[in-house]
């Protein structure tokens, strides 16, 4: 049982657990214990801030993949609030699009969303995302997590 359920220290614990759960998967024995802990928290403290974090963490664990980079400061700040990051994608011949992404969103998912938004789903062309810096421009692999791409820019 937490010493002060819903207290400031407890909130920081849940925020840290959220960041960790979106960054890497624990080993199977730890994962089993973590899922038990999330269930117990939701049962003992329903409708609390802790239960909301437990639900968010459970959903994140179902999507978490190995990360190339540690989370950026922006990503940590939005994770602490259980929100998504807003990513701006510049499209040739179209205005920039804002896309909400999570720690688990891949380049392919964003490309599919943009194709749908721009009404290009019937187009025979293929679409990809590129990252551009002062020195180079390169395609982003379809399975690449966009949070890692953004972290490299930070």
TrEMBL record:
Residue span(s) of domain Ras-associating: 83-154
Domain FERM: 85-154
SUPFAM superfamilies per the UniProt record, alphabetical: Ubiquitin-like
Gene3D superfamilies noted in UniProt: MyTH4 domain, Phosphatidylinositol 3-kinase Catalytic Subunit, Chain A, domain 1
One protein family per Pfam: RA_2
Name the UniProt record assigns to this protein: PKHH3 protein
Any single GO CC term annotated in Swiss-Prot or TrEMBL for this entry: cytoskeleton
Biological process terms in GO annotation: signal transduction
Species: Pomatorhinus ruficollis (streak-breasted scimitar babbler)
MyTH4 domain sequence ranges: 1-80
InterPro entries from the UniProt entry: Actin_motor_Myosin, FERM_domain, MyTH4_dom, MyTH4_dom_sf, RA_dom, Ubiquitin-like_domsf
């Amino acid at each position: 049982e937490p010493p002060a359920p819903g207290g400031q220290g407890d909130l920081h614990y849940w925020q840290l657990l959220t960041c960790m759960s979106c960054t890497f998967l624990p080993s199977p024995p730890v994962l089993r214990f973590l899922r038990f802990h999330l269930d117990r928290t939701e049962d003992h403290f329903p409708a609390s801030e802790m239960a909301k974090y437990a639900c968010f963490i459970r959903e994140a664990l179902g999507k978490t993949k190995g990360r190339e980079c540690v989370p950026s400061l922006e990503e940590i700040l939005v994770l602490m609030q259980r929100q998504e990051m807003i990513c701006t994608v510049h499209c040739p011949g179209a205005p920039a699009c804002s896309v909400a992404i999570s720690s688990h969103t891949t380049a392919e998912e964003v490309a599919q969303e943009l194709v749908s938004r721009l009404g290009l789903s019937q187009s025979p062309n293929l679409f990809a995302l590129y990252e551009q810096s002062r020195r180079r421009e390169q395609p982003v692999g379809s399975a690449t997590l966009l949070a890692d791409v953004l972290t490299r820019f930070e």
